Amino acid sequence: MPAKRGDTVRVHYTGTLKDGTQFDSSRGREPLEFTLGGGHVIAGFDAAVTGMEVGETRTVTIPSSDAYGDRNDAMLLRIPRAQVPPNVSPHVGQQLQVGRGGEAVNVTVREVTPEHVVLDANHPLAGEDLTFALELVGCEPAA
What we know:
By secondary structure, the chain is mainly β. It folds into two domains: about 10-70 and about 125-140, Roll (Chitinase A, domain 3), CATH 3.10.50; about 75-120, Thrombin, subunit H, CATH 2.40.10.330. The chain has one helix and nine strands; from the N terminus they run E-E-E-H-E-E-E-E-E-E. The strands form two sheets. Strands 1, 2, 3, 4 and 9 form a five-stranded antiparallel beta sheet that branches. It is elongated, with a radius of gyration of 19 Å. The protein starts with 7 loop residues before the first strand and ends with a strand. The mean pLDDT is about 95.
């Protein structure tokens, strides 16, 4: 029976970028479990699993617009070095959590100079088309 909206599915996946770099995989651990249409995974992943049958495999490429969106330069935050807490020694590539508007935001340090630090609040996979090798290993119909 094909997986449909509202079903709880279990999926093994391996995600790669255009150049073949693997960015994530469920292999070697428990499969990813989520409710189809529940908004728990990126839209393109949800759509790719919909209609699969248990035991089926498929490989799909999800455009950035259905994944983590395009990169947005407005999400680059340039802050004066003097505003960086003294106990933080930022370096390029470092992942940090910063408070913004009363909530924590994950950022990546993109640039560090004596005068400023550039933080990138885009998702690390923003702007990337993502390829997933999928295997539906379980499906519980919606109640």
